[in-house]
Design brief:
By secondary structure, the chain is α/β, with parallel strands linked by helices. It contains six helices and six strands, in the order βαββαβαβαβαα. Strand 5, helix 4 and strand 6 form a beta-alpha-beta unit. The structure holds guanosine-5'-triphosphate.
Length: about 210
């Protein structure tokens, strides 16, 4: 395992009350607060994990954002430079899934980094008897947007380690990194071509 951990910024997004703070507390401190208070603005935590298959450590700099509507304009600032975004919904609340589809994912596409790794977490899976969004439907949405899908329960500590491991692996996946590098090279090439064309136009203008 390499001594120095790569770091990457992770943001958790989703409606108020879906369990973003509880997922982070469970993941980072292995604690669970039944009376977790609503997040005002945002808060930060970090954790280093070893990803054996890539012989690398990765430090997650995790930003917990506020789900309440009044903070929505503020949340956008946390997308900047985020390498990983985890969209969270509550499996017992249909509205929280619809908002992930219609609002949070759309915001991420508009304000997030181009090659961001996306995770989709269906939280509170311990309350399966009150399920309002089927796993099948959520998986199908995850496939559609190229996200890693995981059912989680912060309460019972289910799926949380797997969720972070999955997005971490995708982030370090050499195929994914190659894709990003290829796209960056292509973008640079296009910018150079555009610059050359505009330079040429300027020169042509002078000769006229
Ligand atoms: P905001 O900070 O307002 O955006 O909410 P949040 O998404 O951070 O939700 P939070 O983590 O504060 O959890 C809201 C409530 O859901 C709390 O009362 C938690 O106890 C409860 N909760 C969180 N995760 C789970 C879970 O996995 N199962 C169950 N049954 N309850 C959960």
């Amino acid at each position: 395992m390499s001594d120095k951990a790569n770091s990457c910024k992770v943001v958790l997004l989703g409606e108020s009350g879906v369990g973003k703070t509880c997922i982070i507390s469970r993941y980072v401190n292995n604690t669970y607060d039944e009376k977790s208070e609503t997040t005002n603005g945002a808060s930060y935590a970090s954790k280093v994990i070893d990803l054996e298959q890539y012989k690398q450590s990765l430090r997650f700099d995790i930003w917990d954002t506020a789900g309440q509507e009044k903070y929505r304009s503020l949340t956008k600032f946390f997308y900047k430079d985020a390498a990983i975004a985890i969209l969270v919904y509550d499996i017992t609340r249909r509205d929280s899934f619809e908002e992930v589809r219609k609002y949070w994912y759309e915001q991420l596409k508009t304000c997030g980094e181009k090659n961001i790794v996306i995770g989709l977490a269906g939280n509170k899976c311990d309350m399966f008897d009150k399920e309002a969004v089927t796993e099948e439907e959520a998986r199908s949405f995850a496939n559609e947007i190229g996200a890693q899908f995981q059912l989680t329960s912060a309460f019972k500590n289910l799926g949380i380690e797997d969720l972070f491991r999955m997005v971490g692996c995708k982030y370090l996946d050499p195929n994914f990194q190659d894709k990003i590098n290829d796209e960056t090279k292509e973008e640079k090439k296009n910018i150079t071509l555009e610059n050359n064309t505009s330079q040429k136009k300027k020169k042509d203008k002078k000769w006229c």
